[in-house]
């Protein structure tokens, strides 16, 4: 009996122990399943979130960045075009005026006729420069009538400023559209595209000398050819053995026709070629002219020699029978494209960065091989853009 009772107690104890184990395992499984479920759910959510984040970072992120960059480029391009359009309109408006009778003081006056803030306003030349074309340019500035939003008449020299934007002077030294100065050596007898664009090309012919012991030529610009549509406008400094201050040392030809300017300082020559008007006027008694091709370019030109002192200081070693008459020029462009080329032209590109070394006395620009042409009249070079029109253009009637 006692033995049976003990057996029952052991069985009950075993049953109780087994029950505790089952309960414990059940709770443990529940806890683990809960944790795993939660953990897995959390992992799934985390994974999902991670995928979303990854998606946004590697997918939409670059797209958003590219979109913003494109929007910025489009905005910059639009702003540039708007500025170019405004500049062109301003340039055209500047010259749209009708001259009125001078005041009793001799001051010239004009009524602006271009649309804008200055429309129908009368501008009077200042007392210190009463005339647009003064008879003594060497000592007197000319009156510049500006019918743009500036709406003013100011005094300016009518000669090339060799330190100003778009200048080409000396042993060719340029000041680009970016305002930086640089030298371009070229070669004696060479021809180079100074500007080459869709509707304009300007070639320059170089003269020069190379003294014994030098590795390169001294060079100067002796002639320019302004090419537009199917026309050639050539300005040449004549070869003279001795410089004469009282004699002209330049020749101008338009399509092989010699242009003669009367020996009157206020003289000018005009002609309509295709859709452009050409205006050439003296800006001094001798050897100084302004050339305008409407809507494209204005060039202030001065012809000068290499003087004896200049020859000595720079050790050019020039022959005594050649004054090396050459051109000093300054260009003002009105309608360049964003892809303009040429030694000077490319400096007018938006965002242009000069390749000339900075911080040195004579920063040199290369590119002889890119811009050399076969002749003064050739529009072809490695990077040239200009294509002459085959048929003559006629002005609208």
TrEMBL record:
Residues 1-24 form the signal peptide. Residues 43-55, 62-91 have a biased composition (Basic and acidic residues). It holds the Pfam family Root_cap. Residues 26-100 are annotated as: Disordered. Keywords: Signal. It comes from the Eukaryota. PANTHER family: ROOT CAP DOMAIN-CONTAINING PROTEIN. This is Root cap.
């Amino acid at each position: 009996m006692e033995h049976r009772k003990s057996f029952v107690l052991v069985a009950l104890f075993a049953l109780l122990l087994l029950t505790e184990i089952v309960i414990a395992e059940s709770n443990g499984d529940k806890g683990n399943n809960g944790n795993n479920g939660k953990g897995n759910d959390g992992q799934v959510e985390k994974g999902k979130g991670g995928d979303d984040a990854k998606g946004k970072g590697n997918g939409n992120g670059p797209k958003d960045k590219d979109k913003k960059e494109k929007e910025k480029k489009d905005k910059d391009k639009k702003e540039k075009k708007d500025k170019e359009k405004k500049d062109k309109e301003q340039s055209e408006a500047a010259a749209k005026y009708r001259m009125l009778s001078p005041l009793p003081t001799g001051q010239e006056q004009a009524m602006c006729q271009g649309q804008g803030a200055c429309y129908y306003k009368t501008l009077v030349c200042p007392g210190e420069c009463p005339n647009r074309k003064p008879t003594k340019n060497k000592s007197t500035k000319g009156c510049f009538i500006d019918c743009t939003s500036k709406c003013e008449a100011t005094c300016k020299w009518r000669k090339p400023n060799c330190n100003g934007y778009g200048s080409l002077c000396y042993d060719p030294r340029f000041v680009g559209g970016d305002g930086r100065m640089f030298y371009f050596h070229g070669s004696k007898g060479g021809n180079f595209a100074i500007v080459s664009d869709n509707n304009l090309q300007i070639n320059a012919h170089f003269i020069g000398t190379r003294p014994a012991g030098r590795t390169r030529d001294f060079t100067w610009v002796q002639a320019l050819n302004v090419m537009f549509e199917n026309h050639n406008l050539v300005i040449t400094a004549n070869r003279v053995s001795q410089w004469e201050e009282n004699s002209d040392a330049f020749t101008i030809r338009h399509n092989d026709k010699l242009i003669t300017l009367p020996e009157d300082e206020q003289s000018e020559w005009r002609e309509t070629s295709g859709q452009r008007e050409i205006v050439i006027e003296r800006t001094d008694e001798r050897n100084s002219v302004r050339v305008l091709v409407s809507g494209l370019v204005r060039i202030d030109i001065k012809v000068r020699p290499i003087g004896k002192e200049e020859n000595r200081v720079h050790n050019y070693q020039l022959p005594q029978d050649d004054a090396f008459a050459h051109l000093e020029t300054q260009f003002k462009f009105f309608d360049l494209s964003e892809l303009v080329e040429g030694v000077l032209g490319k400096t007018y590109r938006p965002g242009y960065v000069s390749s000339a070394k900075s911080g040195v006395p004579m920063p040199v620009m290369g590119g002889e091989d890119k811009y050399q042409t076969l002749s003064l009249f050739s529009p072809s070079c490695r990077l040239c853009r200009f294509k002459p029109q085959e048929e003559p253009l006629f002005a609208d009637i």
